[in-house]
Amino acid sequence: MNGREKRLARNEAMFREINERLESRIQTFTDGEAELAILCECADPDCTDRIRITPDAYAAVRRDGRSFIIRPGHERLDIEEVVERNDDYEVIRKRGVAGQVAEQLSDEP
Asked: In terms of residue numbers, what domain contains 52?
C-alpha cells in the first residue's frame, strides 16, 4: 500500500510541477478576468483534462504542498480528501504517506 500511495502522490506532483512551469504562459482572458488553463493534477498519469482557474485561487492551493486541483470525480478517497468543490474543479488534500511524499516533492527546488 505504501508503494502505491507514493506512486500516486508522485503522479500528482508531476502534474503540479508542469502547471507551475507553464503558469505564466497559459493565461487567457475571459470576460476581462485573468484565468489559467491548467492540467488536472489527479493521480491518473493518462489524464489530460484542463481546468480553468483564477491565478489567485491557484496560488491559494499552492500554499499547501499536500493540496492539488483536480476535475470532479477524479479523487481517490483512500489517499486524499476533498476540501473544496465547485462545478469546475475540486481541491484535494493528500493524507498519510501520500501526503508526506507530496509535501516533500513540493519543497524540492
From this structure: 2-107
β-partners of residue 67 are: 93
User: Which is more confidently placed, 97 or 21?
Assistant: 97
Total domains, the chain: 1
C-alpha cell at 99: 501526503
Distance, in Å, from the CA atom of 88 to the CA atom of 100, rounded to the nearest integer, reads 27
Find out whether 40 and 70 touch, Cβ atoms under 8 Å. Answer: yes
Using CB atoms within 10 Å of the CB of residue 77, give its burial: 0 to 12 exposed, 13 to 18 middle, 19+ buried. Answer: exposed
What's the rounded Cα separation, in Å, for the pair 3 and 20?
Answer: 26
Give the global pTM: 0.73
Joined grid coordinates for residue 15: 502534474
> What does the pLDDT look like over 2-19, one tens digit per residue?
677 777 777 777 777 777
Report the pLDDT averaged over residues 77-93: 94
Summary mean pLDDT of the chain: 82
Give the torsion through C-alpha atoms of 103, 82, 54, 30, to 10 deg: 140
